[in-house]
Fold each of these.
Amino acid sequence: MSTNLKLNPVKQIRLLVRSGQVNSGPPLGPVVGPLGLNAKKIADQINRMTAEFKDLKVLVKLSVNRITKLFELSVQRVSTATLFLKYRQLNKGCSDRTTKIFISNEELDEFMAFAETKTGIARSRTSVIGTLGSLGVTVR
């Protein structure tokens, strides 16, 4: 047995996946295949766990014991940027610095309530404003 397995038999894998649309191909298959796990079985379980976040990108944590081949899945979070794009029905943020998306304080409050109902996690106002700034959104 290699010394790496003796020191740390559990491997942590983080995957950013679109909820309910994971299959056994890339990015999942090439990661779990060498560990001796069934990618189809893991993909089906991820799809069941993320079904409530319809059409959102979700961070999933996969913990694999390399000796016993047992695994554990947990849904980590949905990013604030992904939630905002869904809320405003946008495909992407503004990559051009001359074009800006403006929202009011009231709309920011509505978005924060929307994000909390979708994920159950309250986000701080300054954190949300910082994330929205990276998408080209300015709060008035």
Amino acid sequence: MKKDDIIELTIEDLGIDGEGIGKADGMALFVKDAVVGDWIRAKIMKMKKNYGYARLLEVLEPSPVRCTSRCEFARQCGGCQLQAMTYEAQLDFKAKKVWNHLTRIGGLTDLAVPEIIGMEDPWRYRNKAQFPFGTDKEGNVVTGFYAARSHNIIPCTECWLGVEENREILEIQIQGIKKHVDDTKRNAKEVTLIWQDTHQMLSGIAALAKEGNSKAILDLISESTELNRISTPTHYCSDPILNATLTAYLERARNFGITIEHHLAIPESLPIDSAELSICFANALENATKACTELPENERKIIIRCICRPGSTRRTESITSTRTP
């Protein structure tokens, strides 16, 4: 026998994890989801020197103790390995498993198979469960249980071993997470559009500054202010172009929930061209605002400082995006 061979065999025993064990050509094969007494068709997946592993393809003749699993995910999920067996057969398997451990590992002799006490209704008895959350291949939020020997989540909110309230709680959580994800995607799209508008305005200001067209710069900023529903310009300085630029960019930052702290001492007569200074401020404020949007809302803050002394060509500028205390 070799890998990928298709074989037929009868399951004679169960392994410690509930997998079926049968023999073919004198070789022991472990087959997940097979039940003692099943006659099956299986595909060999891996071969070792003295044993191998096979995957169940078809139950040719079911065992007398085989039953229909109550959970539709029983074969996929890594939680319930014995649901394809009657409850009585499950109890018998567990009793023999304890006996094997006591005799083979514990070294006890002359020990009878212990009597096991079952439940009248072997469902809904677990009061604790852990459900991982993640996304499927399409990006949808899912929760459930991990598939056997993997971290792939089998979507499932109804586990027949847990209490019924679990399902309602999980579905409420999924809806809440979906809403958060949808809001985040929508906000990200809006932020992208705002950055595009900001870059376009900044490029326009730079082009008009080269032409020395101050009136057109003011008109452009005013148009952007109206489109973004920015309030009446705040008085930051006497120069109309610089003041309009500061108003537009700082108000836009406030719209992202950013706290603004400014220390500005800008004289009426600027030592440099106001359009060029406006471009410097616009670039710096755009970068600071973008950096702040990556922080939690309660930690967003921009500190802006600019000191220009009358009669001096020197100026001091500082724009910092930082966490609030």
